[in-house]
Amino acid sequence: MTQPIREIEAVGFLSDGKAKGHLIGGRQVPSQSGRVFDTFNPANGKRLTQLSEGSAADVDAAVRVARAAFEGPWSRWTPYQRQSLLVKIRDLIEANFDELAMIETLDMGAPLSRTKNLKGPILQMIMYFSSQTMGASGETLGNSLPGNVTTMTIKAPVGVVGGIIPWNGPLISQWWILGAALATGCTVVMKPAEDASLSVLRVVELLHEAGMPEGVVNVVTGFGAEAGEALARHPDVDRVAFTGSTVTGRKIVEASAVNMKKLQLELGGKSPDIVFADADLDKAVPGAAMAVFTNSGQVCYAGTRLFVQRSIQEEFTARLAEFSKTLRVGDPLDANVQLGPLISQKQLDRVLGYVEGAPGEGAKLASGGARVGGDLSSGYFVEPTIFTDVTNSMRIAREEIFGPVISVIPFDTAEDVLTMANDTEYGLGGAVWSRDMSTALKMVHGLHSGTVWVNCYGMVDPNVGFGGIKMSGYGVKGSRNHIDAYLYAKSVYIAG
Ligand code: NAD
Fold it and tell me: Does residue 466 fall inside a structural domain?
C-alpha cells in the first residue's frame, strides 16, 4: 500500500531559506572557501536547503576552538555542573522534540512515526549520560609501595573528540558521542554525513541554549573525503568516534595513525536472525520482518540473513511475505506510514543492483523486488523485498545491502546454523527465536557477534551497551566501558 507525498511542511529551522553555516564556537560560520552544497528531501528529491562545504581549513578552525574550550574551564567543571547541564539539555530536547523529529524525517526520510518514537530512547540516553558524570573518578590505593607513599589513579577527559557519523539515524546516533563527551568533560568536533546533517546542527544549537559553553561542541558539515578525512587526520584530535561503513572505517584507522588517536569504530553488519521450528511464530514473523524493514533496512544491525529451520520454511516465508504486504510505504510525514524512502539515488541504485542480481545466483523472489512508482516516483522508495532459496555464499547473503531486503536461508540443525551464521566477516548483531531456552542459550554462546537478542530484535539499553567485533568494529556505545573510553587514568605517586 502506498501513500501520496504531501508538500514539505515548514519547519522554523529551515524557514529562513538561507544556507546553513558550520557551528564553531557557538556561532554559524560559512566555509572559508565559500563553497556550499545542496541537501535534499529523499521522499521527493526536492532541495531542502544548502550546507557549508567544509575543508581542512574549516576543520582546523573548529579543532582549535574545541581545544581552547577544553583547556578553558570546561574540563574542570565539576561532575555536578555537567550533570545539571545534561538535565537542562534533556528538558530542552524534550520540549523541542517534535521539531527535531520533523527535521530528521525531511532530511533522511525515516517516517515521522519512527522519528517521533525516538523521543523516549534519546531522553533515556541523555539521562543515562547525566548519571555517569560522577563516575569519572579513579582509585586510591593507599600504601601499596614501601615507604610513606600514597598511590592513586585520577580519571581525566581524553581531550578533543572527532565525531563522524552516517546518515541513517543522526538524530539518535549523535547522542552516543555528545552524551559521553558532555558527561566526561571532553570537547567535540562533529562531522555529520553530507546527506543528513540538519538534526545535528539543530541539536547543537539547543545545547548552547541550555548553557553549554561555546566551543565545547562544534559542527563542520561537508563531505567525507575532505572534511571527514581532515578530522580523522588532524594532529590535535585525541579520539575519533566513527560510525559508518567498514570501507570508510579502514580509512579512518589509517588517517588516525598520524598521532595515534584512540578510536571507536561502529561499522557495518550482516546480522543473522535465526528462527527455530518451535518459535512463537506470531511474534517471530513480525519480529523478523521489522528486524530488516525498520528504517527501510538502513540499520547497521538489521537481521538481513534470516535463517529459518527447514521444517517451517514454507509456512514461515508465506507468513512473512503476507506480513510485508501489509506494510505501508509512502510519505514519511504521514502518521500511518511505516517505510519511507532510501536516502539517495545512489543508495537506491545500490539496493536495486543487489535485488536485480539475486535471481541470477539462484535466489527466488517471494515478495517485493521493485522501486515504488506512481505518486512516489520522485522519491527513492523500494518495496519490502524477500528472497528465499538463498545460500550463505550468495552476494545478497554476504554483503551489506542497507535496504529493505531479507534473504531467507534454510537450515536443519543448531550446529549447521551456527556454522553458517558465523561464516561472515561481520559481527554486529544477531537473534534467535525459540521457546526452548537451552537452544536459545546455545546460540547466545555460539554466535560471534557483539549483541544477541532472544525472542526480540533491536533493543539497545545505554546501560548495557552495543558494539561490534570482527569487521563490524570495536569499542562499545553505552555502558561504563563507553564512558571509560572518553577518560584516561593518570597514575599518581605521592611520597610523604
Ligand atoms: P560512510 O562510511 O560512507 O559514511 C559515514 C561517515 O563517514 C559520513 O559522515 C561520511 O561523510 C564520512 N566519511 C566518508 N569517507 C570518509 C573518509 N575518507 N574519512 C573520514 N570520514 C569519511 O557510511 P554511510 O553510507 O553514511 O552509512 C552507512 C554505514 O554505516 C553502513 O555500513 C552501516 O552499517 C554503518 N552503521 C553502523 C552503525 C553501528 O553502530 N555499527 C550504526 C549506523 C550505521
Answer: no
Q: Is 241 helix (H, G, I), strand (E, B) or coil?
A: strand
Task: Point out the ligand 1 atom lying closest to the alpha carbon of residue 194.
Answer: 11
Question: What whole-number distance in Å separates Cα of residue 465 and Cα of residue 468?
Answer: 10
Best of 245, 266, 466 to mutate for ligand 1, by most ligand atoms within 8 A of CB?
245
Q: What is the CATH number of the domain that holds 203?
A: 3.40.605.10
Query: Which among 248, 292, 470, 479 is the best mutation to test ligand 1's pocket, defined by most ligand atoms within 8 Å of the CB?
Result: 248
Domain CATH number, residue 315: 3.40.309.10
Same-domain pairing of 401 and 339: yes
Active-site residue, from 53, 226, 266, 400: 266
> What's the whole-model pTM score?
0.96
Q: Which residues form the domain of 294?
A: 272-461
Alpha carbon distance 365, 359 (integer Å): 7
Active site residue 71: no
Q: Which residues pair with 190 in a beta bridge?
A: 163, 219
Grade residue 2 by pLDDT with cuts at 50, 70 and 90. Answer: very low
Residues 428 and 320 in one domain: yes
DSSP, residue by residue, 175-234: HHHHHHHHHHT-EEEEE-BTTB-HHHHHHHHHHHHTTPPTTSEEE--S-IIIIIHHHHH-
pLDDT in tens, 132-186: 998 777 888 877 788 888 899 999 999 999 999 999 999 999 999 999 999 999 9
| Nearest-CA residue for atom 35 of ligand 1 | 244
| DSSP state letter for 368 | -
Which residue has its alpha carbon closest to ligand 1 atom 14? 224
Are residues 311 and 202 both part of a single domain?
Answer: no
Euclidean distance between CA atoms 454 and 177, whole angstroms: 28
